[in-house]
Design goal:
Purple Acid Phosphatase, chain A, domain 2, 8 helices, 243 residues, 6-stranded mixed sheet, binds zinc ion, alpha/beta
Length: 243
């Protein structure tokens, strides 16, 4: 099976469409949460993702915030403003879909969670922090999002510490027996690793590979929509820098 891996789409329809066109044929889709928040097209993005073949999807903090199920007092003012705007936009059907998303899912040797396994809404930013997720993993592969940074961690069965590697410009990971992996495909709708191109991945369960890719899209078209929607300028400006 070829699984399309999507993370942190953040209501950016232009980036999502570019990724879907670039990925071409896939058998199933895995979504790591934060479908909405920040961007100008929450309903269109949720509907596009819901229509993907054999979708498995977990909730992100912005998804739960958009349905009033997450405390946004810790969000920065830009994120909070975007959450409140998103709450007003969502249709009842899309709100219902987001509200029912589970925090963790497992599919064919692969665990999906937005942030980390011990704490689904916490950031996994270092090899040190990856240890707790490796300890809780019951599959050889775990997929995470949330940081908007494309990278992966791996740990051999006998190793004490995991290793961390960047996927800033994409790359292919060969999954080997005896080595477990945590892959963050990066963000489709708001990359923060310095590369403004949309980031996504394809997991090939037969060949045992995960390929992370970057795709250009029309950033200016999204920025114009955000200006019209009166979303915070800072959120739109950062798209151009991938920060
Ligand atoms: Zn996010």
């Amino acid at each position: 099976m070829r699984y399309l891996i999507l993370a942190d789409v953040h209501a950016n329809l232009e980036a999502l469409e570019a990724v879907l066109a670039h990925a071409r044929r896939v058998d199933a889709a895995l979504c790591l949460g934060d479908l909405v928040g920040y961007g100008p097209d929450p309903n269109a993005c949720v509907e596009r993702i819901r229509a993907l073949p054999k979708l498995t999807c977990v909730a992100g903090n912005h998804d739960l915030a958009a349905v009033g199920a997450y405390d946004i007092s810790w969000f920065n003012s830009y994120a909070r403003e975007a959450v409140l705007w998103t709450q007003k936009q969502l249709t009842a059907e899309n709100r219902d879909f987001l509200a029912k998303l589970p925090l963790v899912q497992t599919v064919e040797g692969c665990t999906l969670v937005h942030g980390s396994l011990p704490e689904p809404m916490e950031y996994l930013l270092s090899a040190w922090e990856a240890r707790a997720t490796f300890q809780e993993m019951t599959t050889p592969l775990c997929l995470v999002g949330h940081t908007h940074v494309a990278e992966f961690y791996f740990q051999g069965d006998d190793a004490i510490m995991p290793q961390q590697r960047s996927l800033l410009h994409g790359g292919k990971i060969e999954l080997e027996a005896g080595i477990r992996c945590i892959v963050n495909p990066g963000s489709i709708g708001q990359p923060r690793d310095g590369n403004p191109m949309a980031a996504y991945a394809v997991y090939d369960s037969k060949r045992r590979t995960v390929a992370v890719r970057r795709v250009p899209y029309s950033i200016s078209a999204v920025q114009e929509k955000m200006r019209v929607a009166n979303l915070p300028a800072m959120l739109s400006e950062r798209l151009a820098y991938g920060r």
